[in-house]
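re: that complex we talked abt at group meeting.

here r the seqs, copy pasted straight from the sheet so there may be weird spacing, ignore it
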Amino acid sequence: MSPVIRIEAVSKRYGAVAAVDDISLDIRENEFLALLGASGCGKTTLLRLMAGFEQPDRGRVLIGGEDMTLSAPYARPVNMMFQSYALFPHMTVAGNVAFGLKQDNISGDVLKARVNEALLAVELDRLGDRRPDQLSGGQRQRVALARCLAKRPRVLLLDEPMAALDKHLRERTQLELMALRKRLGITFVLVTHDQGEAMAMADRVAIMESGRILQIGAPRDLYERPASQRVARFFGDMNIWPVTAGATPGTLFVADLGLEARVASGSFLNGGPLTGAVALRPERIAISRTTESETGQGVQGTVAEVVFLGTASTYFVKVPAGGTVRVVVQNSDATSVFAQGDSVHLSWSATALTAIEP
Amino acid sequence: MIARGTSAGSGRRLVLAALWLWTAIVFFLPFALVLKISFAEAQLSVPPYSALFERVDGVVVGLKATLANYGLLATDALYFKAYVGSLGIALIATTITLILGYPMAYAIARAPSPRREVLLILVMLPFWTSFLVRIYAWIGLLRPSGVINTALQAMGLIDAPLVLLNTQGAVYLGIVYAYLPFMVLPLYARLEKLDPALLEAAADLGAKPWRTFLSVTLPLSHPGILAGCLLVFIPAVGEFVIPELLGGPDTLMIGKVLWNEFFSNRDWPMSAAATVVLLATLIAPVMLFQSLRMRAEARP
Amino acid sequence: MKPSRRLSVTAIFLGFGLAFLYLPLAVVIVYSFNASKLVTVWAGFSGRWYAELLADRQILDAAANSLIVAVVSASLAAILGTAAGYAFARFGQFPGRATLAGAVAAPLVLPDVIAGLSLLLLFVALGQAFSWMPERGLFTVIIAHAGLTTAYVAVIVQARLAGMARDIEEAAADLGAKPFTVFRTITLPMIRPAVAAGWLMAFVLSLDDLVIASFVSGPQATTLPMVVFSSIRLGVSPKINALAALLILLSLVLLATSAWIGRGALKRASLRP
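got the structure back, here u go
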């Protein structure tokens, strides 16, 4: 199936800054793609290139197989939901929703029906006569959504749509958006800086930094198999240690742990000059008082610091080789509680270690 | 920048073309003509100046330009005094306006909210009132049988009326009076944005109020001071109504000279030359003002 | 406390400044009701000067001329100034931008005598070059005033647009509206208060102008300030006091209108998150 949006080697500079730096990306029909990154990483510029508010310095933007690199926003079959919602303050809710339809010369009963249908989809059908300044933040957000949906776009572009909502409303809206998308079968492209939001909602996540896509994939793949330290850092505080080739073939030497480790995956294991690192998720590490004979690997250490987080605790364990290991333990049973200075044993399965590029 | 489709491009071109045409009519062409006619000679004809190009059957065969007007401007003491007088009067009046306007703007900016808006409107109101009426009001106050002299005589403070009207002092007064709102508004706009926390921080760090004012408030309101002074100084240099109505025979200002040259002597080339020189004098302050506006625009 | 003492110094300046601004106007208004022909001697309350004023054909004609010029030139300035403000706020960088901006804004500061003389020379030259050009009169005053006041409208509209986030216009384009439709249905309704405020200011400036009108008007087109000026030159008269009082009243009405428009704009602007 051909992609609904194809970004082909697109670059966009503002003066000396490359907002988007040679990005190629296919967005599949019906998928939910999240562009994830810190502010200034180029994710919003990429979205605006799709909507037509910016034009690339190089490369092409194809929508539905058609080259729309230079097409004006009004000529593109995509719609954007703005972070500020950008509701027309001088029009009613129904007027806002009808605006886009009127541009397609839809009028009369058809217009009324389409407006009503869109308002019904966001449960605002009874507020059609209100003006935007008479609505709550959450209601405004849904008007913005209805306004886009009424146009029945091929792709809905969402620019940080939940940034202005409080935490509780945000979670509810996330679920609503996902349900709505399943029902309507529209491709969603979401721009966000919130990795939790991206992970929870998207089929695929593209992690961006400095105008480039660092890695793109399903949320679980990115979480389990980050390709680089920079990606790994996006998902919580990973343990990352530099490695050199081990004495035994197929192993890596982790100097910080004083340990030769077997690594399940990693592209650079087959000889050659070795520069790299391994990553280990803190919650994949088992912590105990005694050395247990497990199939995995392990090190001995001393608890240097304990941070109590409610449902979980984080331990910083100092190992004799000099490194520090971060361990996250669920506070579900009282037996696994350790204090500063306790001598502990850490262990993990071989598959938990991931070799990554530096 | 929002890039638009082809029809947008043509709409934009249309708007820009209209603006260029309009500025050509009301700005570029008139000044080109002023420059051209300043090189012509006055003569009794319609229009009352000589042609710059000699034409035979519509073909330009020669150029007849004269620098005589500029020569006269440079040598005639009257013009020189008028220029220097204009600049001096404008400079002194601007300084007085600043000294009066700055504390006013400061007091308005520090006033609590509902009162602040009222004060601001009070300062703006004279700007909406007829300029002529405001100058006229001062004639009624200053003339020998005017309100001030009558009051002073009634109180027995003076025996004979003081000469207040048609003096240099009345001109300063008129300029300060007429242009005070132009000074207060940009100063207020600047002072209002000043974060009170900065002053508190300075006070907290041990600075006395006067010291805080000199080292924090004054430097931070510098663009407002500059904008206000330019808004008063530039038009004041070319002022005609105030020296004409409030000034005396010894008040020499270039706006008045230019007016008389044009309306009384009907010497158009001479007034054109005087305009060119006035413009040249004002180009530096005008450019400064424009660059101030551009900077304010870039950093809202 | 020290800051409060300093505040009182500035408050004294403010009080003095406001008294300085308003006392002369108050005197004019009071004496406009003076029964005596001798302007400074109070001889009882009377409205006779207003009656005489309203019977003065010359003044009434001039007032009518001024109103026509002010309405037409302010409308022209509102259109051109809105176009200029929009271009500078929304077109980004274009060739000649700084030059055009300078030319549009120059009348903000240029002395009136310069504008008056240069525009007169233009009208004379145009009259020579094109036989179909109308005689100097109200038409030329209208063009000259619009040239002056376009700058004010442009500044007000540009400031309003600069303070208005673009995303609302972008949303309209995104929903399929072509640029002119965006301007007509979204931008214009949102900047309407700024355009109205600009129109009012242009109207006031046109009504107030003496110098430019004196240069460019023809013999049949005398405006109110021209009549006022020539009678002031002859001295203070109670009739002019009455006219001045009426003009002050008019300015109050206009400023109130402007403040009212501004309040509407403020209310709408507060909607943005």
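couple things i noticed - Chain A has a mean pLDDT of 88. The domain at 238-356 of chain A is CATH 2.40.50.100 (OB fold (Dihydrolipoamide Acetyltransferase, E2P)).
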